[in-house]
Amino acid sequence: MLSGALGCPVVSMGDAVRREAARRGLEPTPENIEGLAAELRREHGRGAVALLVLDDVSRAVREAGCAIVEGARSPEEIPVLARLGRVCVLAVHASPRTRLERLRARGRPGETGWEALRLRDRANLDFGVGELIALADYMIVNEWGLGELEAQVSRVAEELRHGSWEGCSGGGG
Predict the structure, then answer these.
(1) What is the reported pLDDT for 171?
(2) Which of 2, 16, 68, 105 has the CB geometry, 3.0–4.6 Å to 52, for a possible disulfide?
(3) What pLDDT score was predicted for residue 117?
(4) Domain assignment of residue 172, yes or no
(5) Is residue 142 part of a domain?
(6) CA–CA separation, 112 vs 98, rounded Å?
(7) Structural domain tally of the chain?
(8) Neighbours of 132 (CB within 10 A)
């Protein structure tokens, strides 16, 4: 929705990890993807996944003048992304029940039950997602359906279009 409202392409950090898993010949199971994300962060620091998307983000910014990077999980990823320009962090939150419903709707292999959600949540908390959410410049609670989500996204898009975010902390980065 935000991409459509602002005309910015989306770059997915999760897709970057899945591409790296495929490059390494790993099955795209939740355990393999979370394990690879953790390994990358151990080897290259908590900003490692942002390093995987820098070229994609750079290309998007050259072509469209902006990019939406989906899936940041740690505050250390923000300064990596900020190498390319100003960063504003938008956190989107939903309850575990709602997130499980959406996880099931995606239909990715192995990501349909509570255990997959718990595995993802534990890994994300270890990566620093709680700190990133706490430091976010904007927060959307995505719990009450499409109409409410559209209204919240529209408000954020309006602020971003009008430069109200100039003072954003960028997630503390």
Answers:
(1) 53
(2) 16
(3) 81
(4) no
(5) yes
(6) 12
(7) 1
(8) 22
Which residue intervals of 74-168 are DSSP H helices? 77-81, 96-106, 114-127, 129-134, 146-161
Q: Report yes or no on 59 lying in a domain.
A: yes
What span, in angstroms and rounded, lies between the C-alpha atoms of 5 and 109?
A: 31
pLDDT of residue 165: 63
pLDDT in tens, 91-105: 999 998 998 888 788
Q: What is the rounded CA–CA span in Å between residue 86 and residue 154?
A: 21
Predicted pLDDT of residue 132: 95
Interacting residues of 110 by C-beta distance below 8 A, sequence separation 6+: 29, 30, 31, 116
| Residues in the chain with pLDDT values less than 50 | 173
* Separation between Cα atoms, residue 42 and residue 28, nearest integer Å: 20
Distance in angstroms between the alpha carbons of the first and the last residue of the chain:
25
**Quick check: is 168 in a domain?**
no
Range of the structural domain that residue 11 is part of: 2-162
**pLDDT given for residue 169 in this prediction:** 62
Could you tell me the two tokens for 138? 């904007």
Q: Which CATH number does the domain housing residue 139 bear?
A: 3.40.50.300
DSSP class per residue in 28-59: --HHHHHHHHHHHHHHH-TTHHHHHHHHHHHH
pTM value surpassing 0.90: no
